[in-house]
Amino acid sequence: MVKRHDIIVRVVARLLLTPSVVVAAALIVKEYAEVGDGFSAGMIVSLTVALQYVALGTPTVEEVLPLLRLSPALVIGGALLALASAFFPLALGKPPFSHLPEPSDHVTTVGTLELFTPLAFDIAIFSLVVGVMTMMLHQFASPDEKETEKERTG
Asked: Cα–Cα distance between 153 and 58 in angstroms, integer?
């Protein structure tokens, strides 16, 4: 196990976690005014998680961020939400990826956030990117013990 001694990197990594998630959320919800960016938001969160792995080490990160264990569920949920938001319009006789509700129709809101299919699709892309990237980071950070043992003996 590698011991992390650089206190500055550890402090910066912890300090950047919350602002990065806030920026990612802002990128997704800006969609009510213009097209959001689920992929960029997902990459921002993924890079922040990668910084956590580098600065703090795998055991500490997985202790501090227990939600990382839900990465496979995040991938599955994101894929299902993407498919649902893409093909839900088919059930209403519209082409896939149609903007629902249509611009002239009433839009359901939560506060000032308008809920419609492009927002659902951006959330799905965000979930897919974060889920896949955190699963990859976990695999890179903690390789399979059997393979590591074979490399040592073999």
From this structure: 24
Query: In sequence order, what are the residues at sequence separation of 6 or more whose Cβ sits closer than 8 angstroms to the Cβ of residue 4?
Result: 10, 55, 56, 57
Measured CA to CA, the distance from residue 84 to residue 90 in angstroms comes to 10
Which of 13, 18, 42 shows the shortest CA–CA distance to 28?
42
22's tokens: 């806030």
pLDDT, one tens digit per residue, over 16-61 is: 999 999 999 999 887 555 667 899 999 999 999 999 999 988 889 9
Provide the phi-psi class of 57: left if phi over 0, else alpha when psi is between -120 and 50, else beta. Answer: left
For residue 93, what is the enclosing H or E element?
none
**For residue 74, what pLDDT is reported?**
96
Calculate the average pLDDT of the chain.
85
CA 29 – CA 27 distance, rounded (Å):
6
CB 89 within 8 A of CB 100: yes
